[in-house]
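Pipeline run #58 for the internal structure catalog. This entry was flagged by the ingest filter as a single-chain record with no existing model, so it goes straight to prediction. Upstream metadata was stripped on purpose; only the residue string is passed forward. Reviewer on rotation: M.T. Logging verbosity set to normal.
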Amino acid sequence: MFQYFDINEILISSYWGANILTILLFITALIVFAKPDKTLYKVLFTLVLISYTVLLNINISHSVHVFSGIILITFALWPSTNENFKITWEFLRYYICWLYFSAFLWKIIHLGFFQAEYGYEAFTDNLSWYIYQNPEDLLTKLYLYLVKHKLILNIGAKVIILLEGAFIIGFFTKKMDHYLVLSLLIIHISTFIFVDVMFFELFILVIPFITLNTWAKIDKLKDAIFYSFKKSKSIKI
């Protein structure tokens, strides 16, 4: 649609169009912080962010996912009432569970999980360039060790896939949410180190799994920090 209606030409190739898009992205974000109860501004920010993301992919001719996690979060923030927000926030949590569980299903259906050397193949295919270009690097020494002991890579890949599958637990209970947060972090840190794929923006998706008790502790910590700051400012020398 962006290509068909020449939106790329209007917003990127045009000097004024590009500047207007940049200013809109900045201003709508600020307004959302200033007026979080106004749905219209949140919708506008999401649409501008999506437009920016689509245009980024079009112009670099390569699919990147830098804003995907943030975009998902912004959808959940659209409601202006507490009741509606609770519903969308709950939906976001279940949707994230589905995202990771579906990644597990994909590898099961397409038999990736059952390939004996799945981890080794993914590792060598993505990190051979690093070993070649950094022969003396400490990380290269670790990589070469893993190449010689590929069983570690193959078992590690199976563990990561099972951690994706573990997100089905989130559909039945919230008592394991702290483990799902840990699973999400392990999945993406491991794929960065051992597969050279880093979806760093998806770390934001741990937020819906943070419990109310944890938020209460964070709130108390915030109040304590502000109290200490005000107290130090009130002390006269």
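catalog note: The longest helix spans residues 82-109.
catalog note: The mean pLDDT is 88.
status: ready for reviewer M.T.
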